Amino acid sequence: MIRVLVVEDDPVVAEAHRRYVERVAGFTVVAVVHSGGDALRTCERMPVDLVLLDFFLPDSHGLAVCRALRAAGVAVDVIAVTSARDLAVVKAAVSVGVVQYLLKPFTFASLREKLERYARFRDRFAESGEVSGQADVDGVLATLRTPDHHALPKGMSAQTLEAITEALATAAEGLSAGAAATVVGVSRVTARRYLEYLADSGLARREPHYGQVGRPEVWYRPA
Q1: What share of the chain is helix, strand, coil (3-state, %, to 5)?
Q2: Separation between Cα atoms, residue 221 and residue 223, nearest integer Å
């Protein structure tokens, strides 16, 4: 199992990220923390393979956390999970050893793809022996850098999908289209379209919800 530390200052978002990670085969979350200092202490105290790192933390910036990890000799990989779109930040992230960069908001499918690529990357390095040539080196690195070909249907936005997905992940009893619409601030029709997309993609499941009168309403739960 690949041991993951989730670092996110928002507890609700952190919990959603934890659930996302643990839905991907081969990954387990060993801890969830909400500050850079706690991230450093956790990596020093327990085995961690991968850090899912928000950059905007209450006590430090994610880049500073990366530099501190390297300075402390902590051998851990980092996937940046951030809203930072400044190319200077992206460049700096590469320079401090960030292996993947995932922009918020994102869908579960996007994170799953990043994690699965990372797992394949680790598997390549776990093989004994040496690479036979430049092509092998390029192939290993390309495992992390392959472009994302998952496109949303026309008229759907990643931001709304992420909001619906997070609302669903934090609803213990599931959500109806009407409830999701209220939480996210979209129309009932829009909410149903996104919930149906998640269900058709295998990321949510439909369940009949029986009220006092009329036909049962469809509710949705995380898959």
Answers
A1: 45, 20, 35
A2: 6
**Cα(143)–Cα(157) distance, integer angstroms:** 27
For the segment 131-159, what is each residue's pLDDT rounded down to a tens digit? 666 766 666 666 666 545 455 778 888 78
Selection from 186, 221, 205, 21 nearest residue 106 by Cα? 21
List Cα–Cα distances, 21 to 16, 26, 88, 178, in angstroms. Answer: 9, 9, 28, 28
Q: Is the pLDDT confidence value at 179 over 60? A: yes
Distance separating alpha carbons of residues 16 and 48, to the nearest angstrom: 19
Contacts of 58 (CB under 8 A, 6+ apart): 9, 34, 35
Burial class (CB in 10 A: 0-12, 13-18, 19+), 43: buried
Q: What is Dmax (Cα atoms) for the chain?
A: 70
**Encoded amino acid at 119, one letter:** A
Q: Are 194 and 158 in contact (CB under 8 A)?
A: no
Contact 102, 144 (CB under 8 A): no
Helix H or strand E encompassing 103: strand 98-103
